[in-house]
Write a structure and sequence with these properties.
Tetracycline Repressor, domain 2, 2 domains, DNA-binding, Homeodomain-like_sf, Helix-turn-helix domain-containing protein, HTH-type_TetR-like_transc_reg, HTH_TetR
């Protein structure tokens, strides 16, 4: 790992990553020059930070996954009952996923760093689901790897609900978190 970036270099990297997310979400084939323009920087500055498009996509993946991990940590899932923790984590993750839709849905092969971050996310998710199971929120015989996959699918589907573009309330992370958790724990069956 290299030495830390100076503050101005760190700001330009952040500006490039945020601009890349916006530009690529609108046009997945956008050029490095278009990304530089959106970031308010020269193409040379972008190429100084990222040698090529693949390096930029890998940096986007690492940044977004680190933000997911930070969102999980900010929810402080170990300091609350599993249901509260699951709700907090879900709302925080939905906030990050909505800001980084392109990057988190793009199928760029994981760099070693991104793969390690994703493994941490999986581990924290299974730990939280294990707590939910031990607290009686999930069936004792529930397959937690399958439950994790279903949970991830619900997170993605919550952001892509039909009609959500016309209804700003349908994008509220807290309301979506309640929907995801309710669906995960109760499915579509009648509530007792």
């Amino acid at each position: 790992m290299g030495r830390p970036l100076r503050a101005d270099a760190e700001r330009s990297v952040r500006a490039i990553l945020e601009a890349a997310e916006r530009v690529l979400a609108e046009d997945a084939g956008a050029s490095m020059e278009q990304i530089a323009e959106a970031a308010g920087l020269t193409r040379i500055t972008v190429h100084r930070r990222f040698a090529n498009r693949q390096a930029l996509l890998e940096a986007l993946a690492v940044s977004a996954k680190q933000q997911l991990l930070d969102a999980i940590g900010e929810a402080r899932p170990d300091s609350a009952p599993a249901l509260v923790a699951l709700y907090r984590v879900t709302a925080n993750v939905l906030r990050v996923k909505s800001a980084w839709r392109f990057t988190l849905s793009h199928t760029t092969p994981h760099s070693e760093t991104a793969a390690a971050l994703w493994a941490d996310i999986d581990r924290y998710t299974v730990e939280l689901l294990t707590r939910a199971q031990s607290e009686g929120l999930l069936a004792r015989d529930a397959d937690l790897d399958w439950t994790r996959q279903v949970y991830y699918a619900l997170l993605s589907e919550a952001l892509d609900r039909p009609g959500s573009e016309q209804d700003p309330a349908a994008k509220d992370p807290d309301a979506l978190a309640a929907l995801v958790i309710d669906t995960l724990l109760h499915g579509a069956g009648p509530h007792a």
